[in-house]
Amino acid sequence: MTSQRDALDGDIVTDFSSRMSYGAYLDLDTLLSAQHPVSRPEQHDELLFIIQHQTTELWLKLVLHELRAARAAFDADDLGVALKCIARVKHIQKTLTEQWSVLATLTPTEYAQFRDFLGSSSGFQSYQYRAIEFILGNKNAAVLRVFESDASAHEVLDTLMREPTLYDAFWQHLARTGLAVPRSMLERDVTRAHTLDSELLTLVQSIYEAPEEHWSVYETFEELVDLEENFQLWRFRHLRTVLRVIGRRSGTGGSSGAGFLQRALEHTYFPELFAVRTWTGH
To answer: What does residue 271 show for φ and ψ, rounded to 5 degrees?
Structure first.
């Protein structure tokens, strides 16, 4: 009879006394020991809640990494690299959206068994989520107050508040290629959220009406639209999960809960790319 050990391929490495292992490379001891339920007695479903949010934060870390790289690629006038990074973000967004279905298995009764132990902790306090919003364009200086007790998070957000957004970098890139980008966009105050620019909308409309003349620009417009639409789908799935689990109750961090999430669906990062749909063809 062949043992399980004998069934291993002959070249399989089994001695890791001087070699890096899978667990060491991923620092699994740290990763898998980072779940600390606070409910007493410990409730079975709290582990789901913790892992759901921890994995979300890991994906958000990668999204932010890719968006920074896309912005840097625009700055370097490397449109191909920027689009590759954005494409990866879009795949991550799909995973994040589908992940809500796991948390949605948590019933109101199950969540109530440990919700009070969470205190004032809330996803509202995710600095990585705020960082992604800032780099995409939804900047709000008031949000920084939430992170005054976390110096490193505050520094990340304060830096992003003062830096150009992905959208800013894109238009600066286009201006360097010779496109007549309005000065109102090129010289805007990047510490503020971008709002609809009528001059920029006129330029966007001209490209949508003659895409063959600026195909790479037209293609990038649609990639950015995908990016925002995916973000909105993620927000919507978040809203529906909250409604399913706690209904209209306030959030643990003091927000209005579902009401706050509903209002977030009104935010847009690239207003001209959506407004143009009303006017193109008229």
So the answer is: -55, -35
